[in-house]
Amino acid sequence: MTTVGIGTPQTRQGLGSRLAALTRIVELGPGRVDPKLLTESGQLLLRAGDRLKLSSDHTVVALAGGTGSGKSSLFNSISGLDLSPTGVRRPTTARTHACVWGLEGAGPLLDWLQIQWRHRFARASALDKGESRLHGLILLDLPDHDSIRALTDTEADRLIQVADLVVWVLDPQKYADASTHRRYVTELAGHDTVTVFVLNQADRLAPEELAECVTDLDDLLRREGVENPVIVTTSAVTGKGVDNLKVVLADTVARRRAAIQRLEADLDRLTRRLGKIMPDDDAPPPPAAIDDARRIGLTDALCDAVGVPAVGEAMENVYGVRSVEWVGWPYARWAKKLRPDPLSSLRLGDLKDEIRGLTGGSVSAQPAEVDNAIQALADGLTTGMHEAWQNGVRDAARSRSAQLPQVLSEELTEVAPSLDRVPAWWRLLLVWQYLLVLLFVAGLVWVGTALAYGVFEIGTLPESLEMFGDAASLPWVGLMMASVLGLGVLTAVAARNVVVLGAANERERLEREMRRRIGSVAEGMVIEPVERELARYNEFYGAMRSVRG
Amino acid sequence: MKSAANRPAHPGDGDPRLGDASPQASGGAPEEHPESLGEQTVAFRAIRDDDVVSVEDDESVQDDERDESVQDDEQDESVQDDEASPAAPGEDGDAAAPGGGDDVAAHAGNPGDEGDEAESSDEEPSDDDAAPELSIRPAAADDGDSDDGDGDAGSPGRDDEAPELSIRPVESGEPGEEDSGAGESSGSGEAELSDDDAPADGDANPELSIRPADSGEDGSGAADDDASSGEDADPAEDDEDEDGFWPTAAASDGTRVRETPVPDEVSEALTNALAALRASVTGLSFGLDLPGVEEARRAQAEILTQLDDYVIPRIHMSTAPALIVVAGSTGAGKSTLLNTLANARVSATGVRRPTTATPVLACHPDDYEWFAKGDLLGGLERLEAPSHKTGTDGLVLVSTERLPQSVALLDTPDIDSVVETHHEIAHRMLDAADLWIFVTTAARYADAPAWRLLRLAKERGARLAIVLSRVPPKSREVVTKHFVRMLTEYGLGEVERFVINESKVTDGMLPDHEVTELRLWLAELSVDDQRRTQAVQSTLTGVLDSFRTRVPALARHLEAQVAFRAELRRDVDTAYAAAMVEIEEAAGNGSLLRGEVLARWQDFTGSGDLMRTLHLRRPGRFAGKASHQGPERLSALKTALRTALESVIVSAAQRASEEVVARWLNRPGAGETLAATPGLGRPSEDFVRRAGRTVAAWQEHIVQLIRTEGVTKRTVARLVSFDVESLALIFAIGLLGYGTTEVEAAGKGALPQRLLHALLGAESLRNIAAKARSDLRARIGMLFDDETSRYIHALDSAGIPDEAAATRLYQATYNLEVAR
């Protein structure tokens, strides 16, 4: 009953690194964590920084409690002087009084606590016999927190939040007040090591009543989550039990750890709350970077948005069709032209030219499909993440999605095939085909002359042209003509095959090139921001783990 | 003389009211209280407009106006005191004459009518026969006092309806509901004054003229608390402003107020009004977690319990044993006090805090049956001894000879311990109390919870006595003085106080001499029926008054909920409307035709398939059959188009759902919990599938349209047939804006359009285009309707009250006022 529980075996170093982790959380948190909690974290950091800078030789002990519980009497009783006025009027104390055992170095701490000068008192501890064990104690007599005055005054509240050790002064009448328990004790459950409960006015109760009362209080506190409540019964009036309290205080002061324990307890509490809204136990081991499968998935989806396969196919088909005009067998083309054209009957003759004029060359991305591709990536990555982070990743992925279609279009248009280009060898083949046609015509002429002069002998040819009139040449000429025709067909077929093959190759090359470009655009505009966000996510949860200690 | 001085103010008030109701009479309205007129109009306009104003409604308007005007009276009292008695009758007369004259003119000269409210006479020109309710009151007046004020206002018709009297006297006899006019004139008890009153009132408000008659019958003492406290000058003010420090009030009232007989029958109107109020409060549900919803829910529960536990039973039995509730902080000594007064250990005491968990009711054996029967606090189970199991609905009932008759003491749990259910029980008990004894201690009297309770008492207008116990004898003076000062500063300086010294408690009881004073007070209360009745009535009135603000507060919250729901609804609609616009834009400006669609289109046209969809019509060949040349390209284009449109829809829906959630999260309160409903932040599970189906169905629809309505131009039809599927696709491409953007650079107009134009003709093309567009819009609309219904469902599952509930509440409050 007279010992403060042993604190967690953590060093000051541990606290420092936890606070550093909390700093990271505060930096990374905005937009992801409840702003209120972040504000509180910031305040805790500030307070911790202040407190750790200030005298570590002093322990701030606050006597808190409802009006009329005897805080001031106890204060006076511990200090052995009538420093804080006591009275029967409620509420009595309106300003905090402080009594310091061992003044050196306490000034800045008292300034930080905002204790008014005229309410500061010092015990020159060394001179007091038996009081040296309290050296380093700063005892605060707080105003009450439950009277109508306290409704407009938050001084008690403020000091309860910053004191190293809070001594709750309760009395038999008020020990179960909601104003104490709901607002502070339950909230600060887990601060066991830096909280002491004093049941004052013990003289008002018979011993057995007192025992019952203490048991009841103990039960109540345990129900509220205070694991090892330290309860001291005192009577400020008779002085009974005050020494016990002094022992507890001396113990705390001597160990000089209350300030750190208090901060640790605050940190624990904050961490619990953070953990509640940002549970990381069930969070998946967050992907450090976007794996290849996802990258490929994204590139595929973006390719679909641009229509890469379609562009390739279109190119291939259009080449195939168009090449016929150049490298096809001329006779087939001419035959086709003889067929009636529906368009001409619609007087839409120029439509054909227009279709032919479809130059292609502009490749563009479908914005909605780009959107959905990015969405799918974000969804896949964030499964199981906290909603705030899901949104974060999604927003990161989308951060440049507005420009993405445009950038993609520009990038790809550079490599887009122009459908109306005509390779030189097409022209050569055309010439060749016409040459063959010419040969064929020449053959026809030869046959004609041979028939006319050689067979029917309608006249004689000049000497120089005699060979054309020779009927004997007919089979040879016929053979040649057949060969010419055959050569034409063969050439057409071969050229066609070459075109198709070439187009297929071209298509493959094109698709590869487009994929490559799309991939690099996606890398810069989607993957990179997402990875940054993921890194932030990882760092946040890393900080969460280290703040947990 | 006070009452006499006061009275003239009434007609003065009555006239503006009349003026309010019927414009003709306003000419005669004195300008004494313009502000009261303003208040009244503000307070009751809305409902009056909505309702078919019955006579009773109007009456209550006036009642209420009267209540408010009473305060004006009080403010202006000094002025009025000077001039009232001489001036007022004259004024009344003036006011009466023109007002009456107008009415007569308006209503075919029925003198009885003009006495009635203008509105009712508007509705029913022949009042004598048509408005039975109107005539009831005068009849009541007749009954009581056949030729007093009534002679003036009374018409032959009234006498005819005299049989219906029986309804009214009940109400008029009942204290608390009565109109102030009655108390006033009865208080004065002077015939001539009531004569003066009668014509004036008769003009402004016929009921007023009745009241004197009634009270005349009952005797001068018939004035109820309400009337006397409301109307009479100084003591009345005390009552109103300071929660009735009743000894004072009693002192001044005692001389004039005669005991009101307990009504054997209760005004049906009041009961009905309360039942209606109860019904309309019961049905409320506050589904959205708006700021303040917790308070609203609590207030709703409180009102319900108070109606059941207290108001309805109390209305029925009026002055039966008064229930005095002892309330206060934990450890203040409530149980000890009760034990001491009962001289028996009826309630557990101890050092454990909190001590009392189950309320203990101690009463005289004579009253035991009555409390055991349990109208009052009927919802609580009666117990023999406290038990831990009962939770919040038990009540220990004990009887003791030491307590005086007609006064029961109820020990309650604390109001400030860690056990929050205790606070609820305590407040429930207080809600059912006729008198409050507030116990605090020397250590506690500055506690915030204690003062919250005092404030509540003040707000509710409850009769209050304060016990300051556990006062150390040596500091008694200091503490008491300080406490009294605080009370005085708080406006409770006049409240009855008892001080009990801190003394040795034996067997849960204080020494008897400590409570002598309190015991005397109780005895007095027990013996003096009139004082008790008055206290009871005062509290009841206070509670009924409190409904005037509490119920409308509920209604306001309800309205806020309804409005908030509408806002949330609007957020959804806005987001999806924006999505719709986005889609239409994308579908109109050609941005759909990018990426794959464009490539497929180029493929389709460039490979010659487009041309192949057209066939020359040749004899013997099957016209219009599907193209066999390149179905794979055709279907690829079709699929690409569907995919594109689908992704536009999906993307828009995704944004819309995110938008809704973001908007909801921005709204304080309910938005958060609703947005936390899983899945609202994205389109529903099968949305993509449904969107795909929708687009496919639309494409089918276009094919149908082309097939049925795309009648080829005759000149063309002779020559060419076309493949419907392909043409539908070309049409869709054209419809979705091919050629409107950079997609088509050729200057001669977009290819598909020209082709279609040539084939179908402009007229037909336009028709089909319009139909196809509206069909697409309708289909997407349906798709989005399904999406929005998820949000509506989320809203509805939170249980949102219907919009009429607030109106019903206002109306119930109003009706209650009418009935009072």
UniProtKB/TrEMBL annotation, chain A:
In this chain the Tr-type G domain maps to 58-250
What InterPro entries does this protein map onto?
GTPase_Era-like, P-loop_NTPase, T_Tr_GTP-bd_dom
Keyword field contains Phosphoprotein? no
Q: Does the keyword Transmembrane helix apply?
A: yes
Biological processes, Gene Ontology terms: ribosomal small subunit assembly
Q: Which residues cross the membrane?
A: 434-456, 476-504
Sorted keywords for this record are: Membrane, Transmembrane, Transmembrane helix
**Highest taxon above the source species:** Bacteria
- List the protein's name: Tr-type G domain-containing protein
UniProtKB/TrEMBL annotation, chain B:
Q: Where is this region: Disordered?
A: 1-264
Q: Where is the composition biased (Low complexity)?
A: 182-191
According to the UniProt entry, its GO molecular function terms are: GTP binding; ribosomal small subunit binding; rRNA binding
Stored InterPro entries:
Dynamin_N (IPR045063), GTPase_Era-like (IPR005662), P-loop_NTPase (IPR027417)
Quote the SUPFAM superfamilies the UniProt record gives.
P-loop containing nucleoside triphosphate hydrolases
Bias regions of kind Acidic residues — which residues?
A: 52-84, 113-131, 142-151, 223-244
Example GO BP: ribosomal small subunit assembly
Q: Which residues form the Dynamin N-terminal domain?
A: 324-469
Query: What GO CC terms are in its UniProt record?
Result: cytosol
Please give the name of this protein: Dynamin N-terminal domain-containing protein
- Give the originating organism: Planobispora siamensis
